[in-house]
Amino acid sequence: MDKELTLNEVQQMVDEWIHQYGVRYFSELTNMAVLTEEVGELARVMARTYGDQSFKPGEKCNLSEEMADVLWVLACLANQTGVDLTEAFRNTIEKKTRRDATRHINNPKLNQ
CATH classification of 7-83 is 1.10.287.1080, yes or no? Predict the structure, then answer.
């Protein structure tokens, strides 16, 4: 896998893996709980890497692995609910650009 992946390709790869190895998708509610768990694991690594906590013996900084786990479960949920993440992300960028075109530039808290 040497080429960059699109979000559509990520969704397709996850779907193919689920059907080949995973038997079936977990229910949407189960996957929502799994997503929450994965975000918590990412938060733990962030707190230990960039925050005030330290790693416990045996723990490691696996930031990229935890981010990929979040993306995996998000792709599962998107596939299950018929969401095209590419289109959804484009829409979000457009929405944020319209809504926040000058908001952050004019925020004195960000320009210190």
Answer: yes
Alpha-carbon span 50 to 44, nearest angstrom: 10
Largest CA distance in the chain: 53
- Sorted by where each begins, the domain ranges of the chain are 7-83
CB 75 within 8 A of CB 11: yes
Q: What is the dihedral of CA 94, 76, 59, 1, to 10 degrees?
A: -80
3-state class of 23 per DSSP? Answer: coil
Helix, strand or coil for residue 85? helix
3-state SS, residue 65: helix
Low-confidence ranges of the chain (pLDDT < 50): none
Burial degree of 63 (CB within 10 A; 0-12, 13-18, 19+): middle
- d(CA 43, CA 60) in angstroms, rounded, equals 13
Alpha carbon distance 102, 111 (integer Å): 13
